[in-house]
Design goal:
8 strands; 7 helices; about 230 residues; single chain; alpha/beta
Length: about 230
């Protein structure tokens, strides 16, 4: 990632920013329903998803923070977020080491992807129990800060492409307005920001194009990837 996108002050500001609307979604995680995915906690193999592009692996480092619940649920939607900062993949992890939050993926300013939480697990992402159970969360780096929280084209287009893969290979349904959300769908927050609100139709269209592409491609298999909690449903 280019050095100019790594700003310690942005990490500090993101840690201190209140009212993010993320978090575990419940004060008592022991009250969460048992897994509906048919996996005992920890049964899924380690490793990132078998995406057709590189995925940086931050799964173990995020797990060490304790800010994730290792219970698997069937996923039915994708939720997009912004970093609230011009953060690198490491910068995102640095924020989550301090703030009790997490998400499954991050897309940085160059469009590169990192994974922090296994795809079916309960990330502390949307501040809503049902949302954290059923949605896969993708963070996106900002290029500008408040008030517009702009996200660069390389970032949101690659986030939409990743969402299309997730819809094809994990969720098994085409992306639509009823299953591709921004964070503010689930809780009281401006995330993913005014700029992303303005271009939602473009984001959805890009995710649909990616979904169609991956529907027509054989699944990608890599020996170091998270295998087969991924289910393709036709």
């Amino acid at each position: 990632m280019p050095e100019r996108y790594v700003h310690d002050e942005d990490v500090k500001a993101a840690i201190e920013r209140p009212y993010t609307g993320d978090g575990p979604g419940t004060d008592n995680l022991d009250d969460l329903p048992e897994s509906d995915f048919g996996l005992a906690d920890g049964d899924a193999a380690a490793g990132t998803i078998p995406y057709d592009r590189p995925v940086a692996d931050f799964i173990d480092e995020l797990s060490a923070t304790g800010h994730v619940t290792h219970t698997s649920y069937r996923k039915t939607s994708v939720t997009l977020h912004h970093n609230a900062g011009r953060l690198s993949h490491q910068g995102v992890l640095d924020v989550w080491k301090v703030r009790p939050a997490s998400a499954h993926f991050d897309v940085d300013a160059a469009g590169a992807v990192a994974q922090y939480v296994k795809v079916h697990e309960y990330a502390w992402a949307v501040g809503n129990t049902a949302g954290n159970q059923g949605s896969i969360s993708i963070e996106m780096a900002n290029t500008t800060l408040a008030p517009n929280w702009r996200v660069g084209a390389a970032t949101w287009k690659n986030a939409a492409r990743l969402a299309g893969w997730l819809f094809a290979e994990v969720i098994g349904e085409s992306p639509s307005r009823s299953n591709l959300f921004y964070h503010h769908h689930w809780s009281s927050t401006v995330c993913a920001g005014p700029y992303m609100d303005q271009i939602y139709d473009e984001v959805l269209a890009a995710a649909q194009v990616a979904y169609d592409h991956f529907q027509n491609e054989p699944p990608t298999l890599r020996p170091d990837s998270e295998p087969a909690s991924v289910q393709r449903r036709r």
